[in-house]
Design brief:
heterotrimer; A alpha+beta (532); B mainly alpha (326); C mainly alpha (328); A: 532 residues; alpha+beta; D-Maltodextrin-Binding Protein, domain 2; Dipeptide-binding Protein, domain 3; eleven-stranded mixed beta sheet; four-stranded antiparallel beta sheet; 14 helices; 27% helix; globular; disordered N terminus; B: 326 residues; mainly alpha; MetI-like fold; 13 helices; 2 strands; 2% strand; disordered C terminus; signal (chain A)
Chain lengths: 532, 326, 328
C-alpha cells in the first residue's frame, strides 16, 4: 500500500532533484507514537491518541479548540429547546467528503445510527433512546427523553461518516455483520477533514496529504504527514534525537534531560487530564488469591484507608515520576472541577496505617495479588512496584501481576469478569466532567457491567447513587458542583472507595523546527502543526 | 530414491499437520474467539449467533478439518486487531522479514567464514584469540541489548545510521517490496542485519574453524602438502572447499530459526516484518495471526529440511545406498 | 539469532564424529586419569580464567544470601527514596551501595547477586529438564527403534520448528489461559524452566540415540540381553556411561544459552517480574536508563551476564576439544 510501483519510483527519483531545487515548499511532518494506528474506522477504538489521529480526516458536528473549548465544526450553530429535550443543529453548507459526496442531514442520521451499533466503542456518545430527525437537508434534530446538558461534550470524538460511501462499501456497521469479512472502513477513509490518507498500513506506516478542498482555512503549513509506530522506548527517543522524526510520545521521563540537551529537540510538557488511581475489589465475599479466607478485607473501609495512608505519594512523585506528576486527592483533574482544591489527601502515615489494619483485625497484614498494566500509563509498572514496597512496610504482602495492557484489561475488566482484587487504573472523563467519573468509576454495577462499567471493584454506595441521579438532573452550576463535591466526599473521604494517586504529565518530544499545540487530552491535532 | 522422496514428503506433511493441530488448539481453546471479536455490550444471543456463524458449535474434528482445509488454501481468517485477512497482513510483512533474514545470513556467512579461516590457520596467533573471544562476547549479551547499544552508538552518538524502520521501499512484482534498491533502505538494513546476524556469525566462525582444523589434519591435505602445492592453494582450494558444504547446510537449516529470532530484532528496530506482527499478536491475544505465523515458520523449516535432505541424497552415494537399503 | 548451537550436530562431519568417543574409547574417568583433560586445561590460560570466573560466579550465586548486604526480593527493605544512586566511587554515590541502586532503590550489588542466582537456577533446572527428556527419549528411540524411533524423531523435528522464544510465548499463553487469575510472580519461574526444557531436549535425544544405535549391536550388549538383564538396566549401565562426554559438552554450552534465553524472554514480557528480578529482568529494566546516563543500572547486570555466559561457553569449548581425540 505504502509502496509506489517501481516505475513510478524511478520517475519520482528523477523528479526528486528538480523538486528539491524548487521545493522549499515541501514540508513533511514525521511522528512516532508508542502504539499503532490500527483501524481508520473512527468508531472502533476509543483511545486518546487514535481519536486525535482520526481528526486529520474526519470531523464532528462540533470540535474542541486548543484549550478544549467547544467550537462549531460541521454544524455551524445549534440551539436547545426550553425543556432541554430537543437539540437542533444547522449544518454547514458546501462541505464535501473526500470522495466528493455532499455532507447532508442524512449523513448525520446515519452516523448517529452507526455509532450506536455493535462493534462501536462509542456507544453512549448519543443516548440509546435519542431520536435523530431530519428537518431539511441541512437541519437535524436530536430528540431526547431526558435533558442532557452534557450531550455534545464528547462529540469532538464523534466524526461524521458518509452514508452513501458506507452503504456502497459494506461499512454500515463498525463490525461487519459476518465476523469473517474484512472491514473496508478500517483501511479506507472518507471524511470531510483537512487531510486525506494517502496510504495506511496498520502497524507500519500511515501517510496523509492536505485536502485542498477543505472548507476551513488550514492553520498548518504541511505538505505531507508520515506516522510510524515505535514501540521500543529507546528506539523512539533515538529516532527523535537523530532527527528522523519530528515528534514522539511519550518521552520516557528519564530521557527528558537528554532530549532537552540535544539541541535539535525539546520536551513539551503539560498537565494531563487523566487520573491514576488504585482500586479494590469490594464485590466478592472472598478475594481471589488472597491469604484471608471467608471474608474480604477490602470491604472494610479501615483496610482501604490503611492502604491509602501507607502510600508515600511524594516519594512516587519525586522518584518514580521525576517530579512530573501532581498528587491527587480526587478522581478528577483539578482542571476539570473548580472545587477540587477543597479536598486534601489523607496524610502518608505508615504508623496510622498499621493501627488501622490492627483495628480491622489484621495486625500482621495479609497477602493479596495486585494487577497492573505495564505499557499503558507513564511508569505504571514502577508505580505498582513502589506501592508493593510501601505496603510491605505495613505488613501487607502484595504479589504483583504486571502485564501488557491487552492482557490486563482482558483480566481485570468487564470481559474478564472483573477478575482482580487490587489494581491500578487511569481514567480521563471523556466528557471532561465529573458526572462521567461518578457513573463510570463510582456507580454501582451488576456482574455484567451494567452501570459503572469501569468500576472494576464495584465500589457501591446508595448515597452516591442518589447524588448521581440529582447531578444528572441539575442544571445550575453552583448547585451541581455542590452535589458533585458531596458525592466525592462520600466516596473518597468517608468510604475511601479508591486511592487517587496523581495526574501524570504529558511529555511530548518535539523537534525545534516544529510548532504545535499540546492539548490536555493528549491528542495531537495534525491541522495545527507548523514546520519551519 | 523415489520412495525416499515420497516418504520424506509424507513425513513433512505430518509435521505440518502436527503444527496445524497445535495452532488450531490455540485458536480454539486459548481465549474465546467470540469474546475477542465483539464489543462489551454484545448480548448473549448475538454472541451465540456469531458463534454459529463461525462454526464453533461443530464437533472439534470437523472444525480442525475445516481449519486445515482453509489453511491449505491460505485462508487463516481475520485478524482480531486489524480486521484484515491474516494472509494479507503476513504477505505484506513477509518481504521485510525475509530480506532481513537473508541479508543477515549473508553477513554472517561472509564474516563468519573469513574469521573462521583466519582463526584456524593462525590457531595460536593473538589476533585469532582476540577474534574468538570477541565473537563470543557478541553472543554473550541478549540480542535486545546489543541492538539498543548499536542504536545508541550509531544513531544517537554518531548519527550515521537510522534507528528504526525500513527506509524507502519499492515494489517488485505484485506483492514483493524491497529496501535493497534505495539508499535509505540499504542504510536502514545495516544495524538490524548485524544485530540479527551476530549469533549466526559466531556459530559459523566456530564451525569453520573446527572443520578447517579437522580437514587440515587429514591425509588428503598431507598429500597435497607433499605434492608441493602452495599453502594458499591448500588452504583455500582444498581445506576451505571441504568445509563449505556443512557450513552452508547449517546456514540454510538455521534460516528458519533466524526468521523466528527476527522477532526481537524487529521489535528493537521497529522493523515492519512478521516478527513484530507476531509479538503484537501475542500481546493482544490475536490468535489467527499467531496460528498462521507458527504454521509459516513450520512450513519454511520443513521445506528447507526437505531440500537439504534431497540434496544430500543426490550428492552423497553412501546415503543413497543406506536410504534404499532401509 | 538461533539458540540452537546444537544444530551443529547435524553437520554430517560432526554427526559422524559425535558418537566417535563412544566407540571403544575409554570412559571419561579413565581419561581424566590419563591427565589429558587436566593437561589441556592447564595449557589454555583462557580456559583457566573461564573456570575461575565460573567458579566465582556460581559461588556468588550460591552464597548470595550471605554475601549480599540486603535482600532485594524483600520489598519492605527497599526504600524508593534511595533510587537512582550511582556506584559508591562516583560522585553522589553512597557508601551503603557499592554498585549504586536501581530505579526502585534496590542495592544493585545485592540485586545482581540474587539475579545471578535466579538466572543460574532457571538455566540449570531448564537444562536439566531438557537433558532428562532428551536422554530418555534418545535412549528409548535408539534402543527400541522401529516405529517408536520414527515417532520420537518426528516429534523432534516438530519441536525444532519452534525456537525457545516461540515455545516460551506459547507456554506462557497456555499457562495463563489455564490458570486464570494466576499472578505472573507465581508462574514465571515455571514457565521459563518448562520452555527451556521443551526447546533444548532435541540435541540430547539425537546424540544419545546415535550412540545407542552404535552400542546396542555390540557383542557385550547382546550378551547382557541374553543373560536376561532388563533393557533399562542395560541402557543405564552400558549405554549411558559411554555418552557422558558429549552430553556434558551440550550441557555446558546449553547452560549459557539458557541464561541468555531467559534474558531475552524477559524483554519479550514473559520473563521474571521486576519484583523477583533475574539478570535478564535487571537488564531489561536497566536498558531504559542507558540514554539518561544512569549506566550502572544496566552495566553491572549486563557485565555479569556476559561474563557468565562467556566463561561457561569457553569451558564448553575446552571440554569439547579435550574430549575429541581427533583434535589432539
Amino acid at each position: 500500500m505504502m509502496v509506489r510501483p517501481f516505475r513510478r519510483f524511478l520517475a519520482a527519483a528523477a523528479m526528486g532533484l528538480a523538486l528539491t531545487a524548487a521545493g522549499a515548499e515541501a514540508k513533511t511532518f514525521r511522528f512516532a507514537f508508542q502504539g499503532d494506528y490500527k483501524s481508520l474506522d473512527p468508531y472502533t477504538l476509543n483511545e486518546s491518541f487514535t481519536n486525535g489521529l482520526h481528526k486529520a480526516v474526519y470531523e464532528g458536528l462540533v470540535r474542541r479548540g486548543p484549550k478544549l473549548e467547544i467550537e462549531p465544526a460541521l454544524a455551524e450553530r445549534w440551539e436547545v429547546s426550553e425543556d432541554g429535550l430537543r437539540w437542533r443543529f444547522y449544518l454547514r453548507r458546501g462541505v464535501k467528503f473526500h470522495g466528493g459526496e455532499d455532507f447532508t442531514a442524512d449523513d448525520v442520521i446515519f452516523s448517529a445510527q452507526r455509532v450506536r451499533t455493535q462493534g462501536s466503542n462509542f456507544l453512549p456518545i448519543v443516548p440509546k433512546d435519542a431520536k435523530v430527525v431530519k428537518v431539511d437537508d441541512h437541519t437535524v434534530d436530536f430528540l431526547l427523553t431526558a435533558p442532557d446538558a452534557m450531550l455534545i461534550a464528547e462529540w469532538d470524538n464523534w466524526p461524521m461518516m458518509s452514508k452513501k460511501w458506507a452503504e456502497a462499501n459494506n461499512a454500515v456497521a463498525p463490525t461487519p455483520q459476518a465476523a469473517e469479512t474484512p472491514s473496508y472502513a478500517a483501511l479506507n477513509e472518507n471524511g470531510t477533514g483537512p487531510f486525506v490518507v494517502v496510504s495506511h498500513q496498520p502497524g507500519v506506516k500511515t501517510v496523509w496529504r492536505p485536502n485542498p478542498n477543505w472548507w476551513d482555512s488550514p492553520r498548518h503549513n504541511l505538505t505531507e504527514v508520515v506516522f510510524t509506530p515505535i514501540g521500543s522506548d529507546a528506539t523512539r527517543v533515538a529516532a527523535l534525537l537523530s532527527g528522523e522524526v519530528d515528534w514522539i510520545d511519550p518521552v520516557p521521563l528519564q530521557d527528558i534531560q537528554r532530549v532537552n540537551a540535544s539541541g535539535i529537540a525539546e520536551v513539551m510538557q503539560g498537565p494531563e487530564l487523566r487520573t491514576i488511581f488504585l482500586g479494590f475489589d469490594q464485590n466478592r465475599d472472598e478475594l481471589r488469591g488472597a491469604s484471608v479466607k471467608g471474608r474480604n478485607p477490602f470491604k472494610d473501609a479501615r483496610v482501604r484507608k490503611a492502604f491509602y495512608q501507607a502510600v508515600d505519594i511524594a516519594a512516587i512523585r519525586d522518584k518514580v515520576m521525576r517530579g512530573l506528576a501532581t498528587p491527587a486527592a480526587l478522581m478528577i483533574s483539578p482542571l476539570l472541577f473548580d472545587r477540587a482544591g477543597e479536598f486534601k489527601r489523607f496524610p502518608y502515615d505508615p504508623e496510622a496505617a498499621k493501627k488501622l489494619l490492627a483495628e480491622a483485625g489484621y495486625p500482621n497484614g495479609f497477602e493479596v495479588v495486585m494487577d497492573c498494566p505495564n505499557d499503558r500509563y507513564v511508569n505504571d509498572e514502577r508505580i505498582c512496584q513502589a506501592v508493593v514496597g510501601m505496603l510491605a512496610r505495613i505488613g501487607v504482602k502484595v504479589s504483583l501481576n504486571a502485564q501488557p495492557k491487552a492482557k490486563y484489561f482482558a483480566k481485570a475488566g468487564q470481559t474478564g469478569g472483573y477478575d482482580t482484587s487490587f489494581y491500578l487504573l487511569g481514567w480521563t472523563p471523556s466528557t471532561l466532567d465529573s458526572l462521567n467519573v461518578l457513573t463510570q468509576i463510582m456507580g454501582c454495577r451488576d456482574e455484567k457491567g451494567n452501570g459503572g462499567l469501569t468500576n472494576y471493584g464495584n465500589y457501591c454506595n446508595p448515597k452516591v447513587e442518589a447524588l448521581i441521579g440529582k447531578i444528572r438532573a441539575e442544571t445550575d452550576k453552583k448547585k451541581r458542583d455542590d452535589l458533585i463535591a458531596e458525592a466525592y466526599r462520600v466516596a473518597l473521604v468517608e468510604d475511601v472507595g479508591y486511592i487517587p494517586l496523581h495526574q501524570q504529565a504529558l511529555v511530548w518530544g518535539v523537534a525545534k523546527t516544529v510548532k504545535l499545540v499540546q492539548r490536555a487530552d493528549n491528542q495531537l491535532i495534525l491541522s495545527w502543526i507548523r514546520k519551519e | 530414491m523415489i520412495a525416499f522422496i515420497i516418504r520424506r514428503l509424507i513425513q513433512s506433511i505430518g509435521v505440518l499437520l502436527a503444527v496445524a493441530l497445535i495452532a488450531f488448539t490455540m485458536f480454539r481453546f486459548v481465549g474465546d474467539p467470540v469474546n475477542q471479536m465483539v464489543g462489551v455490550e454484545t448480548s448473549a444471543a448475538e454472541r451465540e449467533q456469531i458463534r454459529k456463524s463461525l462454526g464453533l458449535d461443530d464437533p472439534v474434528v470437523v472444525q480442525f478439518g475445516r481449519y486445515v482445509a482453509k489453511a491449505a488454501s491460505l485462508d487463516f481468517g481475520i485478524s482480531y486487531q486489524f480486521r484484515q485477512p491474516v494472509t494479507k497482513l503476513l504477505a505484506e510483512r513477509m518481504p521485510a522479514t525475509l530480506e532481513l533474514a537473508l541479508v543477515s545470513s549473508a553477513f554472517a556467512l561472509a564474516v563468519g567464514i573469513a574469521m573462521g579461516v583466519y582463526t584456524a590457520l593462525r590457531r595460536n596467533g593473538w589476533l585469532a584469540q582476540v577474534f574468538q573471544a570477541v565473537s563470543l562476547v557478541g553472543v554473550s549479551l541478549p540480542t535486545f541489548l546489543t541492538g539498543i547499544l548499536l542504536i545508541y552508538v550509531f544513531s544517537v552518538l554518531l548519527g550515521w545510521l537510522p534507528s528504526f524502520g525500513r527506509g524507502d521501499v519499492v515494489a517488485v512484482g505484485s506483492w514483493w517490496t524491497t529496501g535493497l534498491l534505495t539508499w535509505t533502505g540499504l542504510r536502514a538494513l545495516i544495524l538490524p542485519a548485524i544485530t540479527l546476524g551476530l549469533f549466526q556469525m559466531t556459530l559459523i566462525m566456530r564451525l569453520v574453524r573446527a572443520e578447517m582444523l579437522e580437514v587440515l589434519r587429514t591425509d588428503y591435505i598431507k598429500f597435497a602438502r607433499a605434492r608441493g602445492l602452495s599453502q594458499r592453494a591448500i588452504h583455500f582450494g582444498h581445506a576451505l572447499k571441504n568445509t563449505l558444504v556443512p557450513v552452508i547446510t547449517i546456514a540454510g537449516l538455521q534460516l528458519g530459526s533466524v526468521i523466528a529470532f527476527a522477532i526481537i530484532t524487529e521489535t528493537v528496530f521497529q522493523w515492519p516484518g512478521m516478527g513484530i506482527l507476531f509479538l503484537q499478536a501475542v500481546q493482544n491475544v490475536d490468535i489467527p495471526i499467531m496460528a498462521a505465523y507458527l504454521l509459516f515458520i513450520a512450513f519454511l523449516f520443513v521445506v528447507i529440511n526437505l531440500v537439504v535432505d534431497l540434496l544430500y541424497a543426490a550428492v552423497d552415494p553412501r546415503l543413497k545406498s543406506t536410504v534404499t537399503a532401509s | 539469532m538461533p539458540f540452537t548451537t546444537g544444530e551443529k550436530a547435524e553437520s554430517p562431519a560432526e554427526a559422524a564424529s559425535a558418537p566417535a568417543p563412544a566407540e571403544g574409547a575409554p570412559g571419561l574417568v579413565a581419561r581424566l586419569k590419563d591427565n589429558d583433560l587436566v593437561a589441556s586445561f592447564l595449557a589454555s590460560k583462557m580456559t583457566m580464567v573461564a573456570a575461575v570466573v565460573t567458579v566465582v560466579l556460581v559461588a556468588a550465586a550460591l552464597f548470595a544470601p550471605w554475601i549480599a548486604p540486603t535482600d532485594p526480593f524483600d520489598p519492605a527493605k527497599v526504600d524508593l527514596l534511595d533510587s537512582h544512586l550511582p556506584p559508591r566511587w562516583v560522585e553522589g554515590g553512597e557508601a551503603r551501595f557499592l554498585l549504586g541502586t536501581d530505579d526502585q532503590g534496590r542495592d544493585l550489588f545485592s540485586a545482581v547477586l540474587y539475579g545471578l542466582r535466579v538466572s543460574l537456577l532457571i538455566g540449570a533446572l531448564g537444562v536439566a529438564f531438557a537433558a532428562a527428556i532428551g536422554i530418555t527419549l534418545g535412549l528409548v528411540a535408539g534402543y527400541v527403534g522401529g516405529r517408536v524411533d520414527a515417532v520420537i524423531m518426528r516429534i523432534a523435528d516438530v519441536q525444532l520448528t519452534f525456537p525457545a522464544i516461540l515455545i516460551a510465548l506459547l507456554v506462557d499463553g497456555v499457562v495463563h489461559a489455564l490458570l486464570k487469575g494466576a499472578s505472573r510472580e507465581d508462574t514465571a519461574f515455571g514457565v521459563l524452566v518448562l520452555s527451556i526444557g521443551l526447546s533444548f531436549w532435541v540435541q540430547y535425544a539425537r546424540t544419545i540415540r546415535g550412540s545407542t544405535l552404535v552400542e546396542k549391536n555390540k557383542d557385550y550388549i547382546q550378551a547382557a540381553r541374553l543373560v536376561g538383564l532388563s533393557p533399562v538396566l542395560i541402557m543405564m549401565r552400558h549405554v549411558l556411561p559411554n555418552v557422558v562426554g558429549p552430553v556434558l559438552v551440550i550441557l555446558t554450552i546449553n547452560l549459557g544459552l539458557a541464561v541468555i534465553t531467559e534474558a531475552t524472554l524477559s524483554f519479550l514480557g514473559v520473563g521474571l517480574p521486576p519484583t523477583q528480578p533475574s539478570l535478564g529482568t535487571l537488564i531489561r529494566i536497566g536498558q531504559q536508563f542507558l540514554f539518561s546516563g544512569e549506566w550502572w543500572i544496566v552495566a553491572f547486570p549486563g557485565v555479569t551476564l556476559a561474563g557468565l555466559v562467556l566463561a561457561v561457553n569457553l569451558l564448553g569449548d575446552w571440554l569439547r576439544d579435550a574430549l575429541n581425540p581427533k583434535l589432539r
